[in-house]
């Protein structure tokens, strides 16, 4: 019996294009000024020190760190300090109503339905926990944070590593066999399935080049949350 849903965001609950075409360019455009203005704040300094350590750049060389961060944004690196800084920048955009986070209609409907059935719902995304909360707070459907019990990001482990899913199961106190993981990335689903999760491959026609009609998979495969079987 499934007691919990663990869901990805980008390409699963929400359109990849919103992240790629709106959030990433917004962060890239605003990052240099944000870093220069806020680099002495503890929260920003902490992440810049991590960038310096990872990239072997002196922490005092702010312009070089900015250049490296822009490179990572363009390459869609899942680096934890980048994701944290992006979350800080996106917060301004959300609060200024520069954009609202996209959620598929079928996703919001099923999330509400599962919540009403007392199924716990958790988010696991490469975006920082702060960014995840902002995403659902400022969505097209208003503040949707009440739908979720908790959030996980790469601080618990990378999404293609099966140990990450073991840690999440332990953190929420629900056995792996009672958790359904939703994602658009097969390698993430494989990692979760290897430790006992039930899994569902969400293939959005407008986001994926995978042909859902011909695919053969060990995972449940759907194009809409309405088709997910629990």
Automatic annotation (TrEMBL):
UniProt keyword Membrane present: no
Alphabetized UniProt keyword annotations: Amino-acid biosynthesis, Hydrolase, Methionine biosynthesis
InterPro entries: Enolase-ppase_E1 (IPR023943), HAD-like_sf (IPR036412), HAD-SF_hydro_IA (IPR006439), HAD_sf (IPR023214)
Annotated coiled-coil segments of the chain: none
GO biological process, one term: L-methionine salvage from methylthioadenosine
HAMAP family (UniProt xref): Salvage_MtnC
PANTHER family the record matches: ENOLASE-PHOSPHATASE E1
Protein's recorded name: Acireductone synthase
Origin species: marine metagenome
